[in-house]
Design brief:
By secondary structure, the chain is mainly α.
Length: 114
């Protein structure tokens, strides 16, 4: 018996703003570290909100936005910040429970020298 798979389409599940928040949260949790899952989620949300309007709001070229959020894209931090802000989102970094192997947590007021 062979299994049949169909491509995941967020449009089948994402209908409300709460769904969008859930999609982004899941994308951050499930991303393998290369940003592909996060880019795909942001691309879907950008298209749902109108890519041309997003381009105007960010001051970025529409084609460059598509490229940055594509499967092989590699958006700069500046692009991510502009896109998330234009979508009414905030990019936030927070500590993870298990941390990065071998990394020491930063302490307030301390500086690390190499």
């Amino acid at each position: 018996m062979s299994e049949e798979y169909r491509r995941f389409d967020a449009a089948d599940y994402v209908k409300t703003e709460e769904d969008i928040q859930g999609l982004l949260s899941a994308a951050v949790d499930e991303d393998t570290g290369d940003g592909a899952v996060i880019r795909a989620a942001l691309k879907y949300i950008a298209q749902k909100h109108n890519m041309s309007a997003l381009a105007r709001a960010t001051g970025l070229n529409r084609g460059n936005l598509y490229e940055a959020l594509s499967d092989g894209g590699n958006p700069t931090l500046a692009t991510l910040l502009k896109v998330t802000a234009a979508l009414g989102l905030r990019l936030r970094l927070e500590p993870v429970e298990d941390g990065v192997a071998g990394a020491q947590p930063a302490r307030a007021g301390s500086t690390q020298q190499g």
